Write the C-alpha cells for this entry.
Amino acid sequence: MKQSVSLITLGVSDYEKANAFYAALGWQPVLEIEETAFFQANGVVLVLWAREKLAADSGIADGGARWGGITLAYNCRSPEEVDAVIEEARAAGAEIPRSGAKTFWGGYSGVFVDPDGHPWEVAHNPHWTIGPDGSVSLG
Amino acid sequence: MKQSVSLITLGVSDYEKANAFYAALGWQPVLEIEETAFFQANGVVLVLWAREKLAADSGIADGGARWGGITLAYNCRSPEEVDAVIEEARAAGAEIPRSGAKTFWGGYSGVFVDPDGHPWEVAHNPHWTIGPDGSVSLG
C-alpha cells in the first residue's frame, strides 16, 4: 500500500441538503451519478453519498452515530481566513462548536460541523506552508 | 473556501497499536509530536491522534461509536492489487468485512477496517486514472 488517500466519502441523510451546503461553501461537483457527488480536491476526491448505502458498501452495522472518530481539516493562510471560512460555514447553516481562537500548538483554528455531523477544523498553522491547491506539504 | 482537504485525522484509542498497524501497511510518519503521527500522503496529510483529544478539539460529545458515516478509499491499478492490499491489511490485523469482488459500478473492491474501526475501501475503477502519487483525477 502506498501512502495515499483516493477518496473521502461522507455519508449523508439528505443528499440535496448536503449538496446545497457544500455548494454554499463554493464546492462544485465534477461528476454526479445517481445522487453521488464527486468533488475534485487536491489529489483526494471528496464524495457525498447516502449514508445507508455507504454503510452497506463498507460492511458496517451503522448505529447512526454522528461521529466515529474522524475529523477533517482545512488549512488557511491566515487567522483572518479561518474566521472568514467559519463565518461562511455558519451562514450556510453549519453548527460552530468552536469559533476561531488561538490553539495550544501555536496556531489559530475553529471548527464547523456539516449537516450530517461531519466536523471540519479550519486552521492556520504558521509553521506550515500551503501549496496552490491547498495541500499541506510536510516532507 | 477552496475545494481542498488538508488533513484527515483518525482518532485512535491505542496510539502505539494504530501506528504499528499503519507501519505494517508501509506508512511512515514524516513527523511525530507527542503521540501525534503525521503521514504525508498525496497532498492530504493523514494524522493519528488520541480520539479523546480529537473529540475535545473538535467540540464533539463522543458517544464512542466506531463509525460516524465516513469511509476512506484507496484506489488501485488492478483487481490483483486490490486483493494484495486486502491481504496485507488482513495480515496486519485488520477486520475484512468484504473481500475483493466485482462491484455494481463495474469495478472491483474490498474493505478493511483499521484497529479503531475506520474503514478503507480498496478499489479498482477501470474508468479512472491514478496519478504517480496515488491521486485520482476526475477533472
Chain A touches chain B through 69 residues (CB under 8 Å). Chain A has a mean pLDDT of 96.
